[in-house]
Write a structure and sequence with these properties.
- The complex is a heterodimer of chains A (381) and B (437).
- Chain A is an alpha/beta fold.
- Chain A has a domain at 15-161: Rossmann fold, CATH 3.40.50.
- Chain A is built from 15 helices and eight strands.
- In chain A, the strands form two sheets. A four-stranded parallel sheet of chain A has the order 2-1-3-4, sandwiched between helices.
- The relative contact order of chain A is 0.13.
- In chain B, helix 1 (9-28) packs antiparallel against helix 2 (38-58).
- Chain B has two domains: 3-200, Rossmann fold (3-Layer(aba) Sandwich); 201-436, Rossmann fold.
- The chains are: A alpha/beta (381), B alpha/beta (437).
- Chains A and B meet through helix 5, helix 6 and helix 14 of A and helix 7, helix 8, helix 16 and helix 17 of B.
């Protein structure tokens, strides 16, 4: 019993990693060792390269405060809220510990956020990778080149030489993280999942800011406990899949669960899309395999393959025994806005109930969201 | 079913009738204040609509493959829903927006890209047989086209281009990268869209027309620098079609030649659009309220608008960006390489180019300020307005007005407020100009 208490405490500590008060802890410790920290905005930047350079990849969570007063100087209200809240954090000095920032031009908002960061020269190093938006032999070739350029940039930034073996070692570590998170997700198929949806989001966001070895050790030691963990949950609640992008605040998932549902799977870039898909390390071309993995896993809605994305959602609905799909679209983030129109048609055709609603980036209008989700949950019950 | 009721033809028939009315009016009672060449422009527009109607009625392919002449060289009639959406402002736009909201789509995205979707779904504009998408376009255009393609199962092909200012390079490898994708697209169209076959001779012919057409725009750019500015703001603001869009590109070249000659005559006579005399010259950037005419209002207060800043145009017009037929690293490009080179709007690139094109235009045309329209749902321009403003002040000592608005949806438009802001900005520009001089 005492052991379980200990494990529960460890779990709670891990799940609290991305809370505002804890978020910078690992980065600060890393810097104390005289090493650098690289802020990340987008899931297409191959983190293994950063780790291979001895730099800590640290996914930037924007300010969760309502106000974006400083950012609004550069970014009007009606633009991607995640990007605005990130800029707010940068301008407020909350991210002054970052030595650099890396992203891709995945969409216009990210591209322009990078432009502004470059313009104000904060953090002091900025790199933007070319990212193709379709997969073909041709585009993959250029993506490989882009990853190669990123390696060169990281070598210069960190003052090191990155060898194939360094990349291979990191691939192993990152694949282990992916495998561990995959095993946690497999448990979500249980009638009573060991973690709630909001806890799972806390876990996947923790993975983005901690040194991977430390994260892996912690999750590995917690897995046996998770297999026995039974949170107080009503098994008769409808099982939902949650869609969204740049959603990193578990309060939003909590709203859905408080409305009387279990979130048992997600299609979030901060969740399943982050870790789905292993790097094939069996071949002789670690750089190529690494690059391929980042393009071949389920993509953001800015990628135009909505048909495949819809099919992935449908497959997960079956796999996780899901009764409905709830999408929390971040306000003014256009790709999901457009995709939702398509998704509603496809999901209706296959008889999957679907609710798509706008949300802010920071916690806001929770009562209104809660009412809409409650109505949806009631409908599918 | 009558042809008028055939899905997709109502808009085209209305536009054709509008052009006919204008042609008739010009023939019967020409307005001496307007360019004589306007009649050719209306004929060109009418002929395009006629051709599109015929394509719909006879089942010929309609589509779009990019900016250059490849569409026609593939045997398709150009499909221009985005520009058609631009013409549906006022009450028609408000109705479309009501539908957009009802469909559950956001109405905070770019107006033209919101309206586009119900226009096609309602059958007010024809559904294309092929669509291309690309990362060189702005995000809302990509999304609107992608949505139509996925929703209506229209064959599509995406072309990815690297930033041409990425790592400061414009090299053979990147050109080859885009060219190879275009070749794949040609193959895809030939196997997917009936009656489409790449015709290189036609391509070469159309490229030459586009080159001549853009060369006249380069002459026009020089004329725009004249003080007073001979063009009125509405002419500057007009989004152009390249000659390859029209069924008779030779006529388009002829039209531009006549138009530029007329502008040249105005310059020789010292005639300007601003009245009673030109006091200020401004750049209008991004978009504007298409349902209103702030340009005439500005001109009545002595303010000329010699140029608008949109996409790639000013790069071509000013000669800073290569036009069709210009050499590439000391050699001539093949027709498909030429098409690849032009897959490149300035706002598809990183921000420095978007900032610089404003500064270049202001320098070339001796401008005193920038009106930067913050169009709802345009992240590529909205998120760089402040940087443009800061750099214009720092490098040129001129002010920028960042003014929020919508280009087509007019229900929330407050003309009094909008003009008051323009009026205040005139005062600021005048004060700064005096300080500079």
């Amino acid at each position: 019993m005492k052991t379980n208490h200990n494990m529960e405490d460890r779990l709670r500590n891990l799940l609290a990693a991305n809370k505002v008060e804890n978020r910078t802890k690992w980065a600060a410790a890393w810097k104390q060792q005289g090493k650098k920290v690289m802020g990340l905005l987008c899931i297409y930047v191959p983190e293994e390269v950063i780790s291979a350079a001895g730099v800590l990849p640290w996914r930037i969570t924007g300010s969760w405060e309502e106000s974006t007063t400083q950012a609004s100087f550069y970014r009007p209200e009606m633009t991607c809220r995640y990007c605005s809240h990130v800029l707010e954090s940068v301008l407020a000095g909350d991210l002054d510990f970052l030595d650099g920032v890396a992203t891709t031009q995945v969409d216009d908002d990210f591209k322009r956020l990078w432009d502004v960061l470059k313009y104000i020269n904060k953090p002091p190093f900025q790199h933007i990778m070319y990212l193709p938006h379709t997969i073909s032999k041709n585009t993959l070739g250029m993506w490989h080149r882009s990853v190669g350029e990123f390696i060169q940039a990281m070598e210069k930034f960190a003052g090191v030489t990155i060898k194939d073996d360094d990349i291979l070692k990191q691939i192993e570590i990152y694949n282990q993280m992916r495998d561990l998170l995959h095993r946690v997700y497999q448990m979500r198929k249980n009638q009573t999942p060991p973690l709630t949806g909001s806890e799972v989001l806390s876990l996947t966001t923790a993975a983005r800011i901690m040194p991977k070895e430390e994260f892996n050790l912690e999750v590995e030691s917690l897995l046996p406990y998770l297999e026995t963990r039974k949170p107080e949950m009503n098994n008769n609640k409808p099982r939902l899949l949650l869609c969204g992008e740049f959603l990193d605040n578990p309060d939003y998932v909590q709203i859905v669960e408080d409305a009387g549902a279990m979130v048992v799977m997600d299609e979030l870039d901060t969740g399943s899309k982050y870790f789905t898909g292993m790097v094939d390390s069996s071949k002789d071309d670690p750089l190529g395999q690494l690059a391929d993995r980042y393009m071949n896993r389920p993509g953001l809605s800015r990628m135009g393959d909505w048909h495949s994305q819809a099919n992935q959602i449908i497959a997960w609905v079956k796999e996780y025994d899901v009764q409905g799909v709830v999408e929390l679209r971040q306000l003014y983030s256009l790709p999901l806005d457009y995709r939702s129109f398509y998704l509603s048609k496809i999901l209706e055709e296959v008889g999957i109930p679907y609710l798509s609603i706008n949300r802010e980036y920071h916690p806001s209008h929770m009562g209104m969201l809660s009412t809409r989700v409650e109505a949806f949950v009631e409908m599918i019950q | 079913m009558s042809s008028l009721n055939k899905p997709g033809l109502a808009y085209l028939k209305n536009e054709m009738a509008r052009c006919e009315r204008r042609i008739k009016k010009i023939n019967e009672k020409p307005d001496p204040a307007k360019p004589k060449s306007n009649i050719l422009l209306y004929e060109l527009e009418r002929d395009l609509r006629r051709e599109q109607i015929e394509a719909c009625e006879k089942g010929k392919p309609l589509g779009i493959t990019g900016l250059g002449p490849l569409t026609r060289a593939m045997g398709m009639t150009p499909w221009d829903a985005i520009m058609a959406a631009d013409r549906t402002h006022g009450n028609a736009a408000t109705e479309y927006f009501a539908q957009v909201r009802k469909l559950g789509m956001p109405d905070h995205t770019c107006d033209r890209c919101s309206i586009l979707v119900p226009m096609i779904l309602n059958g007010d504009f024809p559904k294309p047989n092929f669509l291309f998408t690309s990362n060189f376009e702005c995000l809302p255009v990509f999304l609107a086209h992608n949505l139509l393609a996925e929703y209506l199962q229209i064959p599509k092909f995406n072309i990815d281009r690297p930033f041409n200012n990425y790592m400061g390079e414009r090299n053979e490898e990147q050109l080859q990268y885009v060219t190879d994708q275009i070749k794949e697209m040609v193959e895809y169209i030939e196997t997917t869209v009936p009656d489409c076959k790449y015709n290189e001779e036609r391509m070469i012919e159309l490229l030459e027309y586009d080159r001549q057409y853009l060369q006249t725009f380069q002459e026009l750019w020089k004329l725009k620098a004249a003080i007073p500015c001979p063009l009125n703001g509405r002419e500057s603001f007009r989004e152009i079609r390249l000659s390859n869009m029209y069924p008779d590109p030779a006529k388009a070249v002829k039209y531009m030649r006549l138009y530029v000659d007329e502008v040249g005559e105005r310059v020789e006579k010292g005639l300007g659009a601003a009245q009673p005399e030109e006091k200020l010259r401004l750049l209008w950037s991004v978009a504007g309220p298409f349902y209103d005419d702030p340009f005439s209002w500005l001109e009545q207060r002595g303010v000329a608008v010699p140029a608008a800043e949109m996409t790639v145009y000013n790069g071509w017009f000013s000669g800073r960006e290569p036009i069709w037929g210009d050499p590439w690293n000391g050699r001539q490009l093949s027709p498909l390489e030429e098409e690849a080179r032009q897959f490149d709007f300035v706002w598809g690139r990183l921000g420095s180019d978007w900032v610089n094109t404003h500064l270049h235009s202001c320098r070339d045309l001796h401008l005193d300020g920038i009106i930067y329209f913050l169009q709802w749902g345009c992240p590529v321009s909205n998120n760089l307005g402040r940087v443009v403003a800061e750099e214009a002040e720092k490098q040129l000592g001129i002010p920028t007005l960042l003014i929020e608005g919508r280009m087509l949806e007019s229900s929330g438009y407050n003309q009094k407020d909008f003009y008051a802001k323009l009026g205040d900005f005139i005062d600021v520009c005048t004060a700064w100009k005096e300080k500079r001089l």
